[in-house]
Amino acid sequence: MTAILQIQNVSKQFDGLAALSDVSFDVQQGELLALVGPNGAGKSTLFNAIAGVFAPTQGHILLDGQDITGLPSHELARRGLARTFQMVNLFPELTALENVMQGFHRHMPADLWGGLFQTAAYCQQQADWQARAIEVLRNLDLHTMADVPAQALPLGQAKLLTVAIAMATQPKLLLLDEPAAGLSHEESSRMMDLVASRVKTHCTVVLVEHNMRLVGRYCDRAVVLQFGQKIFDGLPNDLVHDARVVNAYLGTAGMGA
Ligand SMILES: Nc1ncnc2c1ncn2[C@@H]1O[C@H](COP(=O)(O)OP(=O)(O)OP(=O)(O)O)[C@@H](O)[C@H]1O
Ligand SMILES: [Mg+2]
Asked: Which of 13, 45, 207, 226 best tests ligand 1's pocket when mutated (most atoms within 8 Å of CB)?
């Protein structure tokens, strides 16, 4: 197996707070890995460090064997990394299709001249992007919503749309921060089912999920953080039998239904 992502002794300090302390693990190509942990454990901080929002205070992060520590997010997007955020961040008045198209514009160099004069090359590129955007929407069963403004989408579909936008850049590695949070029991299962069946065929996925039932059912492996430290790395079905994991969750909100 080949490691697509290597987290090597990563620490992150915020003033006096150790949000991550010496965290190391690998993610293998094609895996669906769950990053688990109570509130404030450091999960989003780790995503932000991987995705170039800030550099870790210590340690290294490798993508496909290359050191990407501290590279800016646009360079990481070029190298095949995409992510979604814990909060849904869509353009509410734009349609689902336009939101995906905005994703292309954010990640590709702007052709201002072509856009101004509507050159043949520019129009062809727009047509190509639109075709790819529709394909990505179709892959997540969102194509019938292509012309619906994002603000009119139910939360389940709005969250799926954030996944579609990330997928449109054709990443090798996709980081999903709580894709199922806030969704109903049924919607969460559907989100995880689509990630495991459709998204995973295109790229390696690391996702944050609190619900152990969903992690056990859909994920290949789980890494658990608590107070910024890795306390578990193994099969999801072993999570509920691990004393440190059980203690970490009993001290907080429980392990999800
Ligand atoms: N930009 C920041 N500046 C200062 N402190 C931060 C910053 N980002 C995160 N923290 C702190 O780092 C710790 C880890 O936060 P993080 O958001 O990574 O947790 P999390 O595991 O994603 O939690 P949740 O499940 O609530 O999303 C918390 O104590 C948080 O307050
Ligand atoms: Mg978080």
From this structure: 45
Does residue 109 have a pLDDT over 90? no
* Domain final residue, candidates 128, 151, 170: 170
Which CATH number does the domain housing residue 211 bear? 3.40.50.300
Give the nearest ligand 1 atom to 228 CA: 14
pLDDT tier at 16, thresholds 50, 70, 90:
confident
Burial group, residue 102, by CB count within 10 angstroms (0-12, 13-18, 19+): middle
Domain holding 63, by residue range, is 1-80+171-257
Res. 1 pLDDT band, cuts 50 70 90: low
Pocket residues for ligand 1 (CB within 6 Å)?
14, 17, 19, 37, 39-45, 86
